[in-house]
Design goal:
The protein is mainly beta. The protein has 2 helices and 9 strands. Strands 1, 2, 3, 4, 5, 6, 7, 8 and 9 form a 9-stranded antiparallel sheet that branches. The longest helix is centred in the N-terminal third of the chain and has 18 residues.
Length: 171
């Protein structure tokens, strides 16, 4: 028997195995959870992220995550101005987002980073370090839209008025 033949056979089987694995079905994008569904799975409302998340990464063992937007995003909600960078990172666990980066809120005249979000009962707690505030979780049932928050769909009534010129006569 040729001593090279077993090596050729092994190489052939390796190639067949590699090609077979390459064509195995992978998880389709349709079956992958959206970033909003991932938030829900950790007991957070979808409204923590604005509309338009283009993708995300999640390491389930550590909870390390990154969410991506097409670009930076800003809007006002109930008197608060918020800014999201195009990449938001942190760690997620049940009822807790920590080491959050990429989300800022304007307090008085300065922009500060929101570094932690906790969910407890019917409230969400937002921490910017030494200061924190709680809000009803219902306020975050919907995702705001970049540029206009929740004011995008409110139609402003256009007032039409017919002006007449008393100095022009039709006769």
């Amino acid at each position: 028997m040729n001593p090279i033949q077993p090596m050729k056979n092994l190489l052939f089987y390796f190639c067949v195995l590699f090609i077979s694995i390459s064509f195995l079905p992978t998880q389709s994008s349709a079956s992958k959870l959206s970033a909003y569904e991932v938030l829900r799975s950790y007991d957070f409302p979808v409204g923590l992220l604005p509309q338009g998340v283009t993708g995300y990464e999640l390491e389930p063992k550590t909870g390390k995550f990154a969410a991506y937007l097409n670009g930076s995003c800003s809007f006002s909600i109930q008197g608060y101005q918020l800014k999201y960078k195009s990449k938001i990172t942190g760690y997620i666990s049940k009822d807790k987002l920590t080491q959050l980066k990429g989300v800022t809120v304007k307090i008085l005249f300065i922009w500060v980073n929101i570094i932690e979000v906790t969910s407890s009962g019917n409230e969400l707690g937002f921490s910017v370090g030494i200061i924190s505030a709680n809000f009803p979780i219902d306020n975050f049932d919907e995702s705001p839209q970049c540029g206009c928050g929740f004011e995008c769909n409110k139609k402003k009534k256009k007032v039409w008025s017919i002006r007449t010129n008393p100095f022009v006569s039709s006769s």
